[in-house]
Design a protein that fits this description.
By secondary structure, this protein is mainly α. The chain is 68% helix and 0% strand. Helix 2 crosses helix 4 and helix 4 packs antiparallel against helix 5. The chain has a single domain, classed as Up-down Bundle (3 helical TM bundles of succinate and fumarate reductases). The protein is elongated.
């Protein structure tokens, strides 16, 4: 009786040599999901339970929160993790349901573009937010901004 070895398929050889992006996407979804649960419930607690409830959320409330670097980092993490988590989920849906390669590629590029634009704009809003800009028309500023600015 002779024993012959069957050579591994090319796809298995390629998988051993390259990074498995699907595996890392799967791991990211699980880890970011757990972190997002903590961030979201913390966000809801601070905004709705710890203060005066939803009636207290206004421009001054956000300005006060974003004056503290802790909340700037908290909201930045929430923005980035949630957007990338959602985009990764949409990418999976596109891969599952877009059968034509050109359509799949176009949808993935549109998803990537919109995700990048939203991440940039959201991050800019968080880090450049100034409730009392110097030289602004005093009639347009909130009441908590000093008149001497």
């Amino acid at each position: 009786m002779t024993t012959e070895t069957v050579e591994a398929p090319r796809s298995a050889q390629k998988a051993r040599r390259s990074t498995n992006l699907e595996k890392w996407g799967w791991i990211y979804m699980r880890v970011s999901g757990v972190v997002l649960v903590v961030l979201i419930f913390g966000h809801l607690f601070v905004n709705l339970v710890a203060g005066e409830g939803v009636s207290a959320i206004d421009f001054a409330f956000v300005a006060g929160k974003w004056a503290d670097p802790f909340y700037v980092v908290w909201d930045t993490l929430l923005l980035w993790l949630a957007l990338i988590h959602g985009a990764n989920g949409m990418r999976t849906i596109i891969n599952d349901y877009a059968y034509r390669p050109l359509l799949r590629r176009l949808l993935q590029l549109a998803l990537l573009g919109s995700t990048v634009v939203l991440l940039i704009l959201g991050t800019l809003v968080i880090y450049t937010f100034d409730p009392c800009p110097v030289g602004a028309d005093p009639s347009l500023l909130p009441s908590f901004c000093g008149a001497g600015q």
